[in-house]
Amino acid sequence: TDIVAFKNVIKRYPGGKIALDGVSLHLERGEMAFLTGHSGAGKSTLMKLIGLIERPTRGQVVINGTNLAAVKRRQIPRYRQRLGLIFQNYNLLFDRTVFDNVALPLVIRGLGHADIARRVRAALDTVGLLSLERKFPITLSGGEQQRVGIARAVVDRPYLLLADEPTGNLDPALSADIMRLFMRLNEAGTSIMIATHAIDLVERMGHRRIRLDHGHLENG
Ligand code: ADP
Ligand code: ADP
């Protein structure tokens, strides 16, 4: 079954720019795929439609059996709860510690304190930030902030993880760590879509590659 299904999706931004021009796409449950294409090809837009950060102009987007056209504005936070979203601005809360940023999805879900602490530390450990749990994001480097965002996205075991250039600020060793983390999550059942410029990395990973070119999907 499909976890992601796009049917003839068109996205035109205000001002007339067509970012996606008739995209039909399927990602199967449990699949891990890379989304590639030049800057401006429409990668972020495609992910934003899945995360309901943007709405399509035409066409249909169905995620995990839910037609997103039926998700009303006030239902969006709940819809996003079991998605892992890693976008380029990491959307960290700068008045909260690293620990509290990562804990947020679990707090919202109402988990107990001990359970939260255990899971947050496990997530911070996987991204190599355990020692920074009491720091505030403003005191961290770009790569560290990025990893806080990744830890928060994976802490509640999303069924679908979307990552837009997740290794953009990271050195090769850290990038490889993050890719291994994604592979482990994928093996544990999470479906994953990763947008990236890093073609060499994609080729080494040997996963499916979805190519966008000026808003059009290329076969593959
Ligand atoms: P990519 O992620 O592949 O670089 P994007 O999805 O960010 O591509 O952008 C696709 C096209 O849509 C680009 O031409 C970009 O300038 C345009 N675009 C993206 N976001 C907006 C927006 N909020 N308003 C207007 N145009 C946008
Ligand atoms: P306990 O619940 O037994 O106090 P935890 O393992 O939950 O122990 O927490 C140990 C430490 O982790 C706390 O003293 C605190 O520094 C930090 N910590 C735990 N929860 C939070 C939180 N929500 N925000 C910030 N730090 C926390």
From TrEMBL:
It comes from the Bacteria. It is a peripheral membrane protein. The keyword S-adenosyl-L-methionine does not apply. Residues 4-220 form the ABC transporter domain. Its main location: membrane. Keywords: ATP-binding, Cell cycle, Cell division, Cell membrane, Membrane, Nucleotide-binding. It holds the Pfam family ABC_tran. GO terms for molecular function: ATP binding; ATP hydrolysis activity; transmembrane transporter activity. GO terms for biological process: cell division. GO terms for cellular component: plasma membrane. It is found in: Cell inner membrane; Cell membrane. Belongs to the ABC transporter superfamily. Part of the ABC transporter FtsEX involved in cellular division. Important for assembly or stability of the septal ring. Homodimer. Forms a membrane-associated complex with FtsX. This is Cell division ATP-binding protein FtsE. It comes from Salinisphaera shabanensis E1L3A.
